[in-house]
Amino acid sequence: MNTDIPATVPVAEIDTWSDEVDVVVIGFGIAGGCAAVTAAAAGASVLVLERAAAAGGTTSMAGGHFYLGGGTAVQQATGHSDTADEMYKYLVAVSREPDLAKIRAYCDGSVEHFNWLENLGFQFERTYYPGKVVVPPGTEGLSYTGNEKVWPFCEQATPAPRGHSVPVPGELGGAAMVIDLLLKRAGDLGVQFRYETAATNLVAEGTAEDGRVVGVAWKHFTETGAVKANSVIIAAGGFAMNPDMVAEYTPALGQERKTKHHGMVAPYILGNPNDDGLGIRMGVSAGGVATNMDHLFITAAAYPPEILLTGVIVNKNGQRFVAEDSYHSRTSAFVLEQPEQTAYLIVDEAHTEMPEMPLIKFLDGYETIAEMEAALDIPTGNLAATLERYNANAAAGEDPDFHKQPDYLAAQDHGPWAVFDLSLGRAMYSGFTMGGLAVSIDGEVLRPDQTPVPGLYAVGACASNIAEDGKSYASGTQLGEGSFFGRRAGARAAG
How many CB atoms lie within 10 A of CB 106? Predict the structure, then answer.
């Protein structure tokens, strides 16, 4: 697949414009949709170029989590105290390279953004799901979707649940409801749409070092043209569906492994066919810089049921390497760092239940620890020592090695033992890319010297904002930041 940087089109080469608008938005997912309606609400004329035959993009596939906090109506109704300061402290603590200004703005504006989303025409259910879960089983409006209760973050910020789920049951497609409401709002505001129309190049005056973006060249089947605009907002998604870009930047996401029973297996890509990185490459063509391109989200959840998290997760040497009660993508990110990206979840008979989502493979049950070590090719005595230490500490109600929370501490000393395979290439991993264009707090695409490219903005999965990697991620961060920073970009682009 193409990884080339498309050339910008000099404005002098444009003979006629198909349209002239204040703002053109490339793509209508959650970020592009929020940018478009915000710009239109500010009085700007807005045109959306959507490559697909319908709006929504990857957003329409998402379950519908929004990471919000600071004291939302759902948090208040369910008795969960939270403040913007505690939310800020958590996001800073969990991020490896926190952008303090963006995190501060996101946290301070979270309640207002929650209200704005509900004003589109729906309401988050004022209910709370208390268990450790990937997706609430019903329409519960609030749950823990990150590492707020995981050490050391639970000591650095007061934990609070911040995963707000739209009232649509099921794991996929809930966010499509929000897209439909954004489409209605956009229509009411006079936003124009061109479907099955792909942006191909940015139109610019001047050079990449000192020029300005003044429009977008497009293609609709065999028809071509160009739109003149004061501002261009790229909201064209990530690059997870571009195997060449994946191989270059996030090879684990495309890594195939030979399995005993299923041949060559690679992680399942969460995205749509148009997530080919073109938006990022167009931004680079105008002088922008791509950043954090090696960052990714990849996961194979070991829960629910949460009782499985009382067990131990070890690498091929029989050593623990992560707190088992971590959010599933944090655990998976640590798996990728282990020798041969191999890991096993071990649970005794008293705590064994089959996973509700069969993402991790049940290998076998073993009567003795020595039998387990031999079957898993773990050095003799290593797993026995790990279990002996863990069980003794669990019996005392502590985990000095990884500080697993007491709710998930239980000695695993009642054989036989069940073993589940968490290894990359054997568990059913899925993921998406997280790098993109460097942008300001208002979505302005930035050059290597951190100055903005005039007239150019980027939002959503093609921009690098708060979401960084699987270790720091919480479900709902991308929908949350995409919609929040999409609104900021739309307002700024409208002038």
Answer: 28
Maximal CA-CA distance, the chain: 79
Look at strands 312-315 and 198-205 and give their pairing.
unpaired
| Rounded-to-integer distance, Cα 277 and Cα 3, Å | 8
Dihedral angle of Cα 229, 230, 236, 242, to the nearest 10 degrees: 80
CA distance readout (Å), 135 to 69, 252, 447: 18, 24, 38
Residue 346 burial by CB count (10 A; 0-12/13-18/19+): exposed, middle or buried? buried
State the CB neighbour count (10 A cutoff) for residue 292: 19
Q: What pLDDT, on a 0 to 100 scale, did the predictor assign at position 252?
A: 86
Q: Beta 452-458 vs 444-446: how paired, if at all?
A: antiparallel
> What residues pair up with 386 in beta bridges, in sequence order?
none
Asked if 84 and 70 touch (Cβ cutoff 8 Å), the reply is yes
State pTM to two decimals.
Answer: 0.95
Strand order, beta sheet including 65-67: 65-67, 163-165, 142-143
DSSP 444: E
Among residues 82, 52, 54, 70, which one has the least CA distance to residue 480? 70
Residue whose structure tokens are 């479900």: 475
pLDDT per position as a tens digit, 46-76: 999 999 999 999 998 888 999 999 999 999 9
Give how far Cα 479 sits from Cα of 62, 175, 472, 473, Å.
Answer: 9, 9, 15, 12
Q: Which CATH class, in words, describes the domain spanning 9-61+174-297+430-494? A: alpha beta
At 287, list the tokens.
């002088």
Fold agreement (9-61+174-297+430-494, 301-421): no
Q: Is 294 exposed, middle or buried (0-12, 13-18, 19+ CB in 10 A)?
A: middle
CATH fold group of domain 301-421: Flavocytochrome C3; Chain A, domain 1 (3.90.700)
In the chain, domain spans? 9-61+174-297+430-494, 65-165, 301-421
Question: Helix 30-41 vs helix 176-188: angle between axes, to the nearest 10 degrees?
Answer: 20
CA distance 494 to 492: 5
Q: How confident is the model over 311-340, as a mean pLDDT? A: 97
With tokens 């131990």, the residue in question is 312
